[in-house]
Amino acid sequence: MRVSMDIELKDEPGQLILALDPISKRKANLVSVFHYHKKKSSGSDLIQVRLVINSNEPTIKNIFNDFEELGIRVLRIGEEKYSESLTVLLLGHVIHTDLKDTIDRIDNSGFAEVVGMSLSMPEISKPSSASLEIHAAGQKEMEKTIEILRETAIEKDLLLILPIEIE
Amino acid sequence: MKLIKVAIAGFGSIGQGVARVIDMEQDFFKSNSYDVRVVAISDSKSSIVNKDGLDIKKCLETKKATRRLSDDNRTSLEIIKEEEFDILIEATPTDIETGGSGLENMKEALKRKIHVITSNKGPLTVAFGELTETAKQNGCELKYEATVGGAMPVINLMREMMAGNKINSIRGIFNGTCNYILTRMYEEKSSYEDILTEAMELGIAETDPSYDVDGIDTACKVVILANSIFGMNKTIKDVKITGITKITYEALEMGAKEDKTIKLIGEVTREGKLLVEPKLVPLGHPLAVSGTLNVAAINTNLAGEITVTGKGAGSIETASAVLSDLLYVLKKNY
Ligand SMILES: NC(=O)c1ccc[n+]([C@@H]2O[C@H](COP(=O)([O-])OP(=O)(O)OC[C@H]3O[C@@H](n4cnc5c(N)ncnc54)[C@H](OP(=O)(O)O)[C@@H]3O)[C@@H](O)[C@H]2O)c1
To answer: What is the pTM of this model?
Structure first.
């Protein structure tokens, strides 16, 4: 599972390293670290950091306990719905073949969502290109989403270009 | 000194390159105790034979001046049937429907216990199993490094140097023409059609480019890799193929916004998936080579991923792959 944790750290050198230590010791996968630079907590010498961690539930609980022992306050902890993200390209008559329907097929899956899109349309009658940023609940779900995309591309005669890391 | 007689079938870009390289490397052969002589050459209309060895420079000059080799009208197949020699270098045009005269030449040579080295993908795509079996039955070598990735040493690398490693997958760019077109489209902000015209003018693309741009050439190489490295028995019909003709400049630009480029990737996996399709490749990724370069990434259990890059085509470049096969055959058999 993937969780995001908002923690409070003293605004001093070495504090972030201190907080990252339990994560590496417990072999959890740190996905991202985000500093809320301006958003200081009420006490002015504290800063807020969001950690996104990928691991199993017991490990995450252990990390939570480690933080408490180290005197790091955990302000919020929540499961992230989507752990996988991917950007694909669709080329061809993307708009004429009902782009909204293409996106709906992913959004309606219940396990994936199109979270970003950009379109390039050189001329109205010419083929266009769309880049879709997709989030999915996990690896399996992403695979299923790619299947949906592949089928849609065949049905609508579009060229689907996947990232090289996708098997 | 061991006397080795070589015949060359097909005297175009590759046949001539091979002849030049054999001529250039005479001292090297001699220092390894081989006296390598080209005793016969054929093109589509004529042949030339000299049992004591041909004067290569003269053959090249005659071919250039008269577009033939001599007034000996025998075909390459007749030469293989009638003349005595040890190794055939097959460099006639590719025919992926029937294997063409290349297939006939190779079968005949192997039956006559003549080792075969080829740059011609056609026969291997159509009749890989039959050819390797015939070679085995007759105790002959069948070598084809030049068929995949030109100068890039992929097949011998995997079969000889990396023996013992379990290879999980091979993927790469196996067609320089497609790579050139995609690279230039982005650089020049141009359409597929404009860059294709440029590539034709430069001789990088053929007058009928479909074999390259529709992904068929890449698929042939995927088939050869599947059969030779994974011991499969695949043909081109087993490959899911998508070419590059639908790719637009806008698509390349969109990829670039994500720090990615689009490449035509050929892929074969141990599980038997054979695929040719355009993929998004991160800039800086080992497979993100540009221009006419080819590249292969070999995924193995012990060595991890090994990537080889090189020139996928060209007369002398491809001849270098033929030369490495020739040395292999010499060392192993003479
Ligand atoms: N060019 C490359 O960079 C490259 C790289 C890797 C592999 N290959 C492969 O290597 C092979 C040769 O390529 P290439 O570029 O040298 O082609 P090419 O320049 O078109 O030359 C083909 C040669 O074969 C001759 N030929 C045609 N039919 C023949 C027959 N029945 N018997 C004997 N000779 C015959 C032609 O005769 P004429 O001279 O009378 O027309 C010509 O000399 C092809 O299979 C190609 O796919 C090429």
So the answer is: 0.85
